[in-house]
Amino acid sequence: MAINDFFLKIFDTNGDKIISFDEILVKIDDVVWGIPTIILILFTGLLLTIRCRGIQFTKLGRAFKQIFKKNEGAGELSGFSALCTALSATIGTGNIVGVATAIAAGGPGALFWMWFAAILGTATKYAECMLAIKYREVKADGTVLGGPFYTIEKGMGKKWKWLAVLFAIFGVAAGLLGIGTMTQINGITSAVNMAISSDVAFTLAGNEYTWATVIGGAIVTLCAALVIIGGLKRISKVAEKIVPAMAIVYVFLGLSVLIMNATKIPAAFALIFKSAFGLEAVAGGAAGFVLKEVMDSMQKSMQKGIARGIFSNEAGLGSAPIAAAPVKTEEPVEQGLVNMTGTVIDTLIVCTMTGLAIVIAFCNPQFVAGDKVGVQLTAAALSFDLGGDGVSVQFLLMLCLAFFAFTTILGWDYYSEKCLEYLSNGRMKFVMFYRVLYILMIAIGPYFTVDAVFTIADITNGLMAIPNCIALIVLSGVVAKETKAYFDKYPTLN
Asked: What's the pLDDT tens digit per position in 146-202?
């Protein structure tokens, strides 16, 4: 039992069954991530893909070249810094822990739906970041504020300001309660506890917490506090150094698994596709029953795959545009191209490596997952695939996860602060109070269960995505017009 077990418990209508806090969260998550939300997100990506003429396919090479182009114009950051800030918030527990929880809950097919959502989401990421620069505000002191709240208010008109406010509220909640704090620190301490043996520090409600958890959590909280106080420029400087280095280490680890298990990759892909469309459920029985099983299995795979995919790459969530807005540029399309590469790097490369490693292990009957969840499942799968005692794998995972999650904590503090700044009309006293509250949530994060923190993150992510996707659909014509005008003007990269 963890802290979340202290929270609300209610009886059902019969008065004989207790519904735990975790179960309540799952019910809310099922509503937020129901069919309407899934359709909305996929439709948004598909619409933008069509209206931008498949930009994620036709301009991907140019987008990667654009990353290193020198930026000119009003703003505070280079395009590379903005991409690193966005990647610092995306490459984190979602890539290591989130993929594992998605596969555990939705089956191997969840990985397929992560890919599907990411391919469409690349166009979504391009559009939302491009619009953020088009509709941003440059203040008298040179600071820049932009994101979906201004995109909605300026692009759709004042009558839609309520939708902008709604997005900002959900953005604050996502940073404080979901993706920004508890999931990240929980992932870090889980990895530390897995890699470093230590004595029990204390027992709370029947659950034992080790000194590794307590000390690891305290160190991360202190480090985060020191950086958060420094603001955007300090966050971006930290991200520029940490994100590329840790990404290389983790990609090396993932490539090692794939090379050593190359012959098993086809079987892994077969299992992923079968699971994605519920075909594992077809094993006999009445036709109606089998159809129901297939549909239920497919929906679960879609729900977990798309939800975790968005958790990881944040396409359609509306967070990356907040980081893109301060870029030094006069061409919104250029930074849209740069930021859309983040979805490719995050999901189609990093998440794929994690997912394939886990599915390859699942394909071997000798692999026993047991009750392992989150980083423990990822570590067990990687260790099994690579062989050996698993100690070195656990240490590398701990190192990667610690740095990935740490930068995600920093990135999401910035996102949620900007949402709060919009809500409070720039009153910094509210922002300073929020920073204290944010640091407090980091401190208590290790003492929640993995399932609870990820479900909370899924809920807040879904709530953020809904108003953002509505705005992108309404403004898809603007996106198409701006995109065509830019490429007509600059058919090649200068």
From this structure: 899 999 999 999 999 999 999 999 999 988 887 788 878 887 887 788 777 778 877
Residue 77 carries which DSSP code?
B
**Residue 481 tokens, joined:** 């017009």
Quick one: CA torsion of 367, 369, 374, 376, rounded to 10 degrees? -70
**Crossing angle for the helix pair 374-386 and 391-423, to the nearest 10 degrees:** 140
pLDDT band, very low/low/confident/very high, at 68 (cuts 50, 70, 90): confident
- State the DSSP code for 4: G
Answer for the pair 249, 396: CB distance below 8 angstroms, yes or no. Answer: yes
Question: Which helix (H) or strand (E) element contains residue 201?
Answer: strand 200-204
Q: Is residue 296 pLDDT above 80, yes or no?
A: no
pLDDT exceeds cutoff 70 at 321: yes
Contacts of 450 (CB under 8 A, 6+ apart): 97, 101, 186, 187, 190, 373, 374
User: Tell me, which fold does domain 57-489 have in CATH?
Assistant: Amino acid/polyamine transporter I (1.20.1740)
Query: Smallest Cα–Cα separation from 468: which of 318, 263, 344, 332?
Result: 318
Residue 214 has pLDDT above 80, yes or no: yes
Q: How many residues does the chain have?
A: 494
Least confident of 63-67, 280-284, 336-340, 352-356: 280-284
In this structure, the strands spanning 10-11 and 18-19 are antiparallel
Residue 318 and residue 128 in contact, taking contact as beta carbons nearer than 8 Å = yes
Q: Write down the domain spans for the chain.
A: 57-489
The predicted-structure confidence for 44-57, as pLDDT tens digits, reads as follows 999 999 999 999 99
User: Which amino acid, 42?
Assistant: L
Mean pLDDT, residues 354-371 taken together: 85
CB 300 within 8 A of CB 108: no
First to last CA, the chain: 59
Q: Between 58 and 314, whose confidence is greater?
A: 58
Tokens representing 429 are 């006293």
Rg (alpha carbons) of the chain, rounded to whole number:
22
CA 494 to chain centre: 33
Other CB atoms within 10 A of residue 111 CB: 33
DSSP codes, 159-192: GGHHHHHHHHHHHHHHHHHSTTTHHHHHHHHHHH
CA–CA separation, 210 and 216 (whole Å): 10
Residue type, 110: A
Answer with the residue of higher pLDDT: 236 or 358: 358
Checking DSSP bridges between strand 207-210 and strand 144-145, what pairing results, if any?
Answer: unpaired
Rounded mean pLDDT of the chain? 81
Sign, CA torsion 216/193/356/300: negative
**Please, are residues 123 and 315 in contact by the beta-carbon 8 Å criterion?**
no
How far is C-alpha 85 from the geometric centre of its chain's CA atoms?
Answer: 13
Instruction: For residue 106, give both structure tokens.
Output: 């939705």
